[in-house]
Amino acid sequence: MIDRYTRPEMGKLWSEETKYQTWLEVEILACEAWAELGKIPREAVAEIRQKARIDIARILEIESKIRHDVVAFTTQLAEVIGPASKYVHMGLTSNDIVDTAQNVRMVRAADLLLKGAKRVLAILRRMALDYKHTVMIGRTHGIHAEPITFGLKCLLWREEFRRHADRLRRARDIMRVGKLSGVVGTFSQSKPEVEEYVCRQLGLKPAPIATQVVQRDRHAEYMATLAIVGAGIERIATEIRHLQRTEVREAAEPFGKGQKGSSAMPHKRNPEICERLTGQARILRANALAALENVTLWHERDISHSSVERVIIPDSTILLDYMLDRLAWVLDGLHVDARRMRENLESTRGVIFSQPVMLALIQKGLTREDAYAIVQRAAMKTWDGKKTFKQNLLADREGRRYLASRAIDRLMRVENYLGEIETFYRRCGLA
User: Fold this and answer.
1) Which of 262, 304, 347, 405 is catalytic?
2) Which of 80, 241, 271, 325 stands the most exposed, by the fewest C-beta atoms within 10 Å?
């Protein structure tokens, strides 16, 4: 399906062009660091920076013959830089470049995801305030429970997304490390000062200790965070799907003019985007599992993780960016039917007030078990018949001994359930 997904920054971040440009950035910074230490002539660094350019087609041509992407990259640079290229990659191994550059992109990806999360947060804030007093039925196990407001539901979503934003910040920080410590991480041919300089220039921190690679527990935590945020999106999308069901019809995702819901049934108005989001969350979870499998590598490094990460990291960050964009679109245009919410709340003819009636009976001196039995009898007759809960209570021989009609009316007011709304808004910073 064609979508107006208007944020190409994430896709560009994971393009081949950006990959090689980031590799080049790391290589040139390493040369600058060596020049600061007096190991490379400064004029050579200036020449490298001036002449270095990326030719992806040529890199791929070389790689097809030598079967090594980083060597193909440095060979292509040597072709365009000339003699000064002998200083490029000095004292480094492939993963000094690959891991550091990948982490740069993962940090930048987290920044884009945070933008998407903040957009969702802003919409949820507005919804929580707009629907603060829009009464609806709360449901447990899918069954009517007690009254809430749609604003409370939105406030709950907002609070969860605040945690998601915090998780993304932590994931960003866990990946904000670089590594230029050589083939087994001992600085045998490099220097800590080179690593520190490069990381500082890239906005990273040196990994306190590494092997040939940055350890993959970091990547697993990052990917698990994306999966958790995806699960949060799925939770909201699932709720909207339920609220859009024909029997409920309390809320519905936007449905544009000319949009079609079914090839066979013109009446259909389906929660198509929300269904899509619930399915896509499964991909994020699967990719998080693959990232966990990547944690265990042989000794100081193998490359079993590499082929996996080339798929799961771009795919998951791009997918979550898309999901955040689509969730924002759904929420911003969500159709909320307050009248239908009230109709559904009243449709069970008063059984939702069973708890305050039971507590009132207990206050009259009954045991909890006896009070429960009286209220349950009346409630079950209401479910199975046409009389209201109040009528069945008054028709019950024991019930009418303890509760008068006016007392029942006072107990069966929706307003009784909403007295602490301000408490939740105050706790969530929206009072």
Assistant:
1) 262
2) 80
pLDDT in tens, 340-390: 999 999 999 999 999 999 999 999 999 999 999 999 999 999 999 999 999
The pLDDT value recorded for residue 1 is: 42
Kindly report the CATH number that applies to the domain delimited by 92-342: 1.20.200.10
DSSP, collapsed to helix, strand or coil, labels residue 147 as strand
Render pLDDT for 102-112 as a digit per residue (tens, 0 to 9).
Answer: 999 999 999 99
CB 196 within 8 A of CB 169: no
In which residue ranges of the chain is CATH 1.10.40.30 found? 351-411
3-class SS of residue 251: strand
- Catalytic residue selected from 141, 263, 299, 307: 141
Q: How far is residue 303's CA from residue 307's CA, in Å, rounded to a whole number?
A: 7
pLDDT value for 273: 94
Summarize pLDDT for 25-78 with one digit per residue, the tens. 999 999 999 999 999 999 999 999 999 999 999 999 999 999 999 999 999 999
CA distance 124 to 120: 6
Catalytic residue check, 64 = no
Q: Which residue has the tokens 């740069």?
A: 104
For 1-90, which CATH class? Answer: mainly alpha
Burial label for 23, CB within 10 Å (0-12, 13-18, 19+), is buried
Q: Where in the chain is the domain with CATH 1.10.275.10?
A: 1-90
The neighbour count for residue 37, using CB atoms within 10 Å, is 11
HSE at residue 424, side-chain half, CA atoms within 13 A, is 19
- 141 catalytically annotated: yes
The CA distance from 72 to 329, in Å, is: 43
Q: How far apart (Å, rounded) are the C-alpha atoms in residues 21 and 115?
A: 24
Question: Is residue 161 scored above 70 in pLDDT?
Answer: yes
Contact by Cβ (8 Å): 214, 99: yes
Residue 271 CB contacts under 8 Å (≥ 6 apart), including other chains: 237, 240, 241, 244, 252, 253
Nearest CA among 125, 161, 134, 148 for reference residue 339: 134
The residue among 84, 82, 91 whose CA lies nearest residue 37 is 91
Report, as an integer, the average pLDDT of 83-99: 97
Q: Which CATH class is domain 351-411?
A: mainly alpha
Q: Is the pTM of this model over 0.85?
A: yes
* Cα-only R_g, the chain: 30
